[in-house]
Specification:
The chain is built from 6 helices and 8 strands, in the order ααααααββββββββ. The longest helix is centred in the middle third of the chain and has 22 residues. The chain has about 250 residues and is of the alpha+beta class.
Length: about 250
């Protein structure tokens, strides 16, 4: 993927998720030496991918190891893998964006599928539904992160949480990511808002560190807000904003 010098700042997500080839990765690592914001951004994307995976991971049944070990002797070994006859051509821009989406999905699917083959049959339906929900969330997040016009802005909430918003006008969507968010008190929840010319409209919830796609229409919104609201949320903010951050232009 060819990038202009001014495009280096858009590669943080792809680098963090291993979607760059060796030459691109080396070039971006050189850029990281002099760009603190990209270093922070890449670190946040790594942490977000890990949290998404951990959020849907489930421990296998206690008896899973025993069943697997008892079946080992009856499983035929796979034939050895042979080298590919030719080098795989470099990915183009469209395929690179698909690779990033797959890398995001892999971070969750690897955690979800670990041990799935030995799960009891009664867990299959719940597992499938959870996997579908996770995939939908990943598709929505990756569509924004990999958009060619994605723009990023960072902020810090009044409670010390570090926040990041990535917005794409072409996708008409924005992603909110937060780290260091204190747990809300019992009966309370963190609610997100989009500021439309002074009118705050609900944009979703976040109760712990993680990444969510803002609901609503960010196209004509000027800022993202975060408040602490009663459980279930409010139709309008009832407390002073912990964060009011301008959307990236």
């Amino acid at each position: 993927m060819k990038q202009h010098v001014t495009d280096a700042h858009t590669l943080s997500a792809a680098y963090a998720l291993g979607a760059l080839d060796s030459a691109e990765s080396a070039g971006f690592e050189e850029h990281l030496r002099t760009c603190e914001s990209c270093r922070e951004e890449a670190s946040e994307f790594r942490a977000t991918a890990a949290r998404l995976a951990a959020a849907v991971a489930q421990a296998p049944p206690v008896a899973a190891k025993t069943r697997v070990m008892s079946a080992v002797d009856g499983v035929r070994q796979l034939p050895p893998r042979l080298p590919a006859p030719a080098a795989v051509p470099a990915l183009g821009g469209a395929l690179r964006r698909r690779a990033l989406s797959l890398a995001l999905a892999a971070s969750v699917v690897a955690a979800v599928l670990g041990g799935a083959a030995v799960w009891q049959s009664q867990h299959a339906q719940d597992f499938e539904q959870q996997a579908r929900r996770s995939q939908r969330q990943l598709d929505a997040v990756s569509a924004v992160l990999t958009a060619s016009d994605a723009r990023t802005v960072h902020g810090r909430a009044a409670n010390g949480a570090f926040t990041t918003v990535v917005a794409s006008a072409r996708q008409n969507a924005a992603v909110f990511s937060v780290t260091g968010l204190p747990a809300p008190a019992a009966g309370r929840t963190y609610q997100l808002w989009l500021d439309h010319d002074g009118t705050m409209r609900p944009a979703g919830f976040v109760d712990h560190d993680g990444t969510v796609v803002l609901t609503g229409d960010p196209a004509d919104a000027g800022a993202v807000g975060l408040t602490l609201e009663p459980a279930g949320g409010s139709t309008a903010p009832t407390t002073a904003p912990l964060l009011l951050m301008a959307l990236p232009a």
